[in-house]
Amino acid sequence: MKNKSKELQVAIKAALEAGKILEKYFETEILKEFKEDTSIVTLADKESEEIIKKIIFNAFPTHSILGEETGMNGDKSDYVWHVDPIDGTRNFANAIPLFAVSIALVHKNNVIIGVVYNPASRSLFYAEKGKGTYFNDKRIFASKDDKDHAIVTISPGKLDIEKQLFLELGRYLPKVIRSTRNLGCTAVELAYIACGGLEANIQLGWSYTYDFAAGVLLVEEAGGKITKLDGSLWKFPEHHFIASNGVFHDLLVEEVKRQKIKLGIK
């Protein structure tokens, strides 16, 4: 992308610097800690978030940063950076190369900058509102594949009923689309939709804003589509949604509705 804004340049710089830290620790015997919600945190998460915060605050000292590991930081501002120092920490900690640094800038609940970087594959995805999505500096677009050639990922929710819905969708979706997956990294899944590697992702509620804020902008700017699970208008920071290439989006909405009715979910 030509003429990147200062905000995008800073986000890319922060993601790349954090990526160097993840490279240093990846495939090593790194200490794992478990949070109250059973998710994992490592030394790499903490160091990655600190370097990201340092770079952002040096450039934008009056902005706020919501980080996975340290919560809300900085002054109260209309500009809030949503930072996941390692999305897919469980993959990272088990030497599975599906993880990413995810950084987004949100202004009054509108995502205006999104950067996702996987240092294991040196894959840098970025987008700026109204300027398209790029992969390693090349403009990218969502695929045009239909349901018969599609790969759809399903991300489980936290509640038992959401987990049931995840299992039911995993059982029945392959009857109407080509293939399903769960990659364990929302940021990467959304980035793959933007570049045509996947056709859709169904988010059932587990993720936090810092997991998906950057990714949803990548999808939207690549020509994809995002709605709530029932097909209605999606707005940030709603964390139940369907993101897709738009080709068979309505079919996914109908299948989610069908399984929710079967399970008695409103």
What CATH architecture label of the largest domain applies? 2-Layer Sandwich
CATH-defined fold name of the largest domain: Fructose-1,6-Bisphosphatase, Chain A, domain 1
Q: Trace the largest sheet across and list its strands.
A: 4-3-5-6-7-8-9-10
- Strand portion: 25-35%
**Helical/strand content category:** alpha+beta
| Low-confidence spans | none
Count up the domains.
2
CATH class placement of the largest domain:
Alpha Beta
For the sheet with most strands, the description reads:
8 strands, mixed
Q: What keywords describe this structure?
A:
266 residues, alpha+beta, Fructose-1,6-Bisphosphatase, Chain A, domain 1, D-Maltodextrin-Binding Protein, domain 2, 2 domains, 8-stranded mixed sheet, 5-stranded mixed sheet, 7 helices, 27% strand
What this model shows, in words?
The chain is of the alpha+beta class and about 270 residues long. The chain has two domains: about 5-140, Fructose-1,6-Bisphosphatase, subunit A, domain 1 (Fructose-1,6-Bisphosphatase, Chain A, domain 1, 2-Layer Sandwich), CATH 3.30.540; about 145-265, D-Maltodextrin-Binding Protein, domain 2. The protein contains seven helices and 15 strands. The protein has helices at about 5-25, 45-60, 90-95, 160-170, 185-195, 210-220, 250-265, and strands at about 30-35, 40, 65, 70-75, 80-85, 100-105, 110-120, 125-130, 135, 140, 150-155, 180, 200-205, 225, 240-245. The strands form three sheets. An eight-stranded mixed beta sheet has the order 4-3-5-6-7-8-9-10, sandwiched between helices. Strand 3 (about 65) and strand 4 (about 70-75) form a beta hairpin. Helix 1 (about 5-25) packs antiparallel against helix 2 and helix 5 runs parallel beside helix 6. The protein is globular. The mean pLDDT is about 95.
